[in-house]
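I am still getting used to backbone structure tokens and would like to learn alongside you. To get us started, please write out a protein record for me. Once you have written the record down, we can walk along the chain together.
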Amino acid sequence: MSNRDIIVIGGSSGATAPLKAILGALPDTLAAAIFVVLHIPARSLGLLATVSAAAARLPVHPAEDGLAIAPGHIYLGVPDHHLILEDGRIRLGRGPRENMARPSIDPLFRSAAATYGPRVIGVILSGLLNDGAAGLDAVRRCGGVALVQDPADAIADEMPRSALAAVADGLTVPADRIGDVLADLVQEQAGPRLPVPPEIRLEVDIAAGERIDSGVLRRFADPVALSCPHCGGVLSEVRGARPLRFRCQVGHAYTAEAAAKAQEGAVDEAMRVALRIVGERAELVARMAVEARETGRNAVAEMYEARAAEYRDYTETLRRAVLDTFEPRGGGGEPEA
């Protein structure tokens, strides 16, 4: 029976410092391969140097399609590709973005769970929103171990808290202890292999770039009256998902929180456009009322005046709503990777 020899790590805002601490604490004899996805800009070049400096005792590689996996090596997700694990090698996927990101954490975790089952240790670090929570749930469903950075010492605690909500039995560990805990877990034998839920394999295929259509989507999701923030297509709710998640027929995937964040810009813009149009309508009708008064059409003038007052009420309601959008809000997302 194999040991726990596959470690997958995901994070975003505030994750670089704990990642450096983790990798710096690992021994050069570590008998496990490590895979890392952080939400990074599409043209980011600094992560490789940062991780290489922190993990001085272990070789670090940017992920390459077809690259063989070796224990004691660290593999980093690269911009604009999902990092996917197959048996003994890496695959880079150009499937649709998940939670506005590519690479996204969930595809890495799902592919590890589907391929290596109980040999996987999943680690969620500091970050905004909740990418990685569904992937960590997949790791546990396939028999793996779930570790989560203690939200109390995370710069951004949303991602760790969401992961713990999705995986109630996950281990909560302060960032400066995760490296030691991993070194111990790697020495343990993995548990028995569990059946892989078919929806996990389907979502791995989607991330890899396999074709998706309504027939594929209906195998694990049901259409709802929501549109995809990215392409405008119909969203379907993934059955039994933890956390609540959606996919469109193109394959774009969102947790409910990520979808709400993605919609914010469109909602704000729509309200500003409506404010301008209704305000202009009020001004036009008011001028028409003045003209009607000047030409002795009092009944028409009264009708226009009533309409202008009604439009001004609408304008004030919209103005208050637009101003509310500038109030400070909890949380926040990151730029689309």
Q: What stands out?
A: The chain has three domains: 6-185, 211-251, 262-324.
